[in-house]
From TrEMBL:
Organism: Peteryoungia algae
Keywords: Plasmid
Protein name listed in UniProt: OsmC family protein
Organism superkingdom: Bacteria
Any one Pfam family match given in the protein's UniProt record, by short name: OsmC
Length: 138
């Protein structure tokens, strides 16, 4: 039987002589990238932070179900910031994730939920282990 939860993953960025990259996901989603400091939208660093925020919020919902807290969790907001490294190569040195969990939970439940969400989140798990990046010219 096919796994109905699996979905194609991947992204392609296309950039012409001028302008900004256009991103297309393996499922056909599209997104334009911006780089100007005052332009609304996402730059590549925003997309990385957004991926972590989205994954953590969804993982918190999964964790709430696992922990029997789904009925009391009203909303999860994951705010993510990145600290840029002071030395080369250009990169983030670390990330801060703040999970605001609305609902009838006590402090210990919120902490347990946040830790379980981190353990579930594919993006946080990937960032934690320095994955291999292979680049090839086509």
């Amino acid at each position: 039987m096919a796994d109905l939860r699996s979905r194609p993953i991947g992204a392609t960025a296309t950039l012409g002589k001028t302008g900004y990259p256009a991103i297309r996901s393996a499922t056909g989603g599209e997104l334009d990238v911006v780089t100007g400091p005052s332009q609304p939208g996402f730059n590549p660093l925003d997309l990385l932070l957004a991926s972590l925020a989205a994954c953590m919020s969804m993982s918190a919902r999964i964790a709430a179900r696992e922990m029997g807290l789904h009925e009391v969790v009203e909303r999860v907001t994951a705010s993510v910031s990145g600290e840029k490294a002071a030395d080369e190569p250009l990169r983030f040195a670390g990330f801060t994730v703040e999970l605001a969990i609305d609902g009838a939970l006590d402090h210990d439940q919120r902490v347990a939920l946040a830790h379980r969400a981190e353990a579930i989140c594919t993006v946080s798990n990937t960032l934690a282990v320095r994955p291999t990046v292979r680049v090839a010219a086509a």
